[in-house]
Amino acid sequence: HPSIKTVAKRISNPNQPLNETTHAPIEAYCKLVMDLFEILEKQVDSYLTVSLNKIMSGFIKRLVWVPKSFSDTFNRRMMK
Q1: Residues 6+ apart with CB under 8 A from 1
Q2: Which residues, 6 or more positions from 16, have their beta carbon under 8 angstroms from its beta carbon?
Q3: Helix, strand or coil for residue 80?
């Protein structure tokens, strides 16, 4: 936001162009916020990817183990 001094100058001389630097802090803040959101988005994406890989790895191991366990039990029963 413009300072009180800038607003007073603008009122006293309406033909004077606005100082464009009054928007610089606001633009810098908005850029900072957007950069932080981008960093957080990447961190969340990485976390979800790692979590999904861990979950799927355990799920696949269980899928492989169940048929093997079933076939071992089946084979033992057939051998009796």
Answers
A1: 22, 26
A2: 9, 10
A3: coil
| Between 3 and 17, residue with greater pLDDT | 3
- Tell if the pTM clears 0.90, that is, is over it: no
Which of 33, 36, 10 shows the shortest CA–CA distance to 22?
10
CB under 8 Å to 15, separation ≥6 — which residues? none
Backbone phi and psi for residue 19, each to the nearest 5 degrees, phi listed first = -75, 120
DSSP string, 1-68: ---HHHHHHHHH-TTSPPPGGGGHHHHHHHHHHHHHHHHHHHHHHHHHHHHHHHHHHHHHHHHHHHHH
pLDDT tens per residue, range 18-33: 565 567 777 788 889 9
